[in-house]
Amino acid sequence: MGITSVKSFVISIAAAALLATAGPAHAQGTLLSNKIAFLNAIKERDALKANELARTGGSAILDVRGDDGSTPLTVTIAREDAEWTGFLISKGANVNLPGKGGDTPLILAARVGFHDAVRWLLSKKARVDQTNRSGETALIAAVHQRQLPIVRLLLDAGADPDKADTAAGLSARDYAKRDTRSRQILQAIEAKKPATTATNFRL
């Protein structure tokens, strides 16, 4: 093999190696770009864009986090948007992925009083006692906001009323005892017997 042939061979090997490494990097960059575009489409309620990105990007695109920590699912739940929340859940969005402050979709839905979202999330096996960065559970959030129907839903799903947060070391039961303006919540907690199996919720 002559010198020219050797040089050509080396160049071709180097080019092949460059393409091999550039391929995955390019694909990863495209996925990240599409994730950001998907989150923006959710925020802007751009149905055409969101559907197209969800169709081409698959489940990997549904669980992006924005710079502020928000996820598509926490964005739609925060604005109590049933249509978009249902869309994301039906597409397979991670129902346990935390957003800002470690709030899970279930904690956020309980806090804002989004009853339908709580039911849907529980039907998709959302972890009922998962906590945020303050140790707050969905049940504690519901008690704070005096969301009696949601308190009952969570208790039926097996939520632990005695799981204490890390902010004050208090549980949902403790907070309910301190709140003299919503005695029905304490009554619901006191009446609930420890569950051996969680209730199955259906959409």
TrEMBL record:
Transmembrane segments: none annotated. Residues 1-27 form the signal peptide. SMART domains: ANK. The keyword Transcription regulation does not apply. ANK repeats lie at residues 68-100, 101-133, 134-166. Keywords: ANK repeat, Repeat, Signal. The keyword Transmembrane helix does not apply. This is Ankyrin repeat domain-containing protein. It comes from Sphingomonas lutea.
